[in-house]
Design goal:
Elements lengths: L1 E3 L5 H8 L4 E5 L2 H12 L3 H4 L2 E5 L5 H4 L5 E7 L9 H9 L1 E13 L3 H7 L3 H8 L4 E4 L17 E4 L1 H10 L4 E7 L2 H4 L10 H15 L10 E7 L2
Parallel strand pairs: 1-2, 1-4, 2-3, 4-5, 5-7
Antiparallel strand pairs: 5-9, 6-7, 8-9
Helix pairs in contact: 6-7
Organism: Streptomyces ruber
Pfam family, one: Methyltransf_11
GO molecular function: S-adenosylmethionine-dependent methyltransferase activity
Length: 229
């Protein structure tokens, strides 16, 4: 597996613990150092399944041969890339025949809904005609409010446009899901779960909604899986 934009290695480590061989690519030196530090504390069997490469995800062709990976993960990366098409084409070239390209992106199809919830009606109208890959404008926050949601320097993508892009790079869409449906709709965040059973029910509800129309279409994030033909 190739994990592009591996960050501090959370995803790569989970995969390695499950028995997969993972190569992580990250351009931020601090995150690379953090990933290596965390990896050093793992058992030898896990450490041996993870390789960390400091570099830009757009330069995969410099580090790897085409068709080198069965799975390429690119989660939470396109939202920080102004021109994503060259990156996606390069990632598709890394896939072996039948390989899976997994993308996690901001959902640009709900930009109008997000602006409307903030009472920004001019922004709501403008969102209908926004480009397929456009800056995501967050709802205003109260002074001093702390939020885990991303700021205005992120980009959002539309499902239809990404579906066409995947077909064009030889990894047509196989399946897609919504991520964070109900938790995104709650303005101040959903109430904290009251216990383990409540937490399990919340996760189950999100999982069900992420697989079911029309709910998955209004999710904060989209998870797209393309397969190399």
């Amino acid at each position: 597996m190739l994990d592009v934009g591996m960050g501090r290695g959370t995803q790569a480590l989970r995969l390695a613990r499950a028995g997969h061989a993972v190569t992580g690519v990250e351009r931020d030196p601090e995150r690379v150092a953090a990933a290596r530090e965390t990896l050093a504390a793992e058992p030898e069997g896990v450490r041996g399944r993870v390789r960390v490469v400091e570099g830009d995800g757009r330069d995969t062709g410099v580090h790897f041969l085409p068709g080198s990976f069965d799975v390429v993960l690119c989660h939470g990366v396109l939202m920080h890339v102004e021109e994503p098409d060259p990156l996606l084409a390069g990632l598709a070239r890394m896939l072996a025949h039948g390989g899976l390209l997994s993308l996690l992106v901001r959902n640009g199809d709900v930009s109008a809904l997000r602006s409307a919830r903030a009472g920004d009606w001019a922004g709501t109208l403008a969102a209908f005609d926004a480009p397929a890959h456009a800056p995501r404008v967050p709802a205003p926050r109260e002074p001093g409010e702390c939020s885990g949601r991303p700021g205005p320097d992120v980009w959002a993508d539309r499902l239809g446009a990404l579906t066409a892009t995947l077909a064009g790079i030889g990894a047509p869409l196989h399946a897609w899901y919504g991520v964070r449906v109900f938790t995104e709709l709650a303005d101040g965040g959903v109430p904290a779960p009251r216990g383990p059973e409540d937490t399990d029910a919340l996760i189950a509800a999100e999982d069900r909604a992420g697989r079911t129309d029309p709910y998955r279409r209004v999710a904060a994030l989209l998870h797209l899986c393309g397969v190399r033909g």
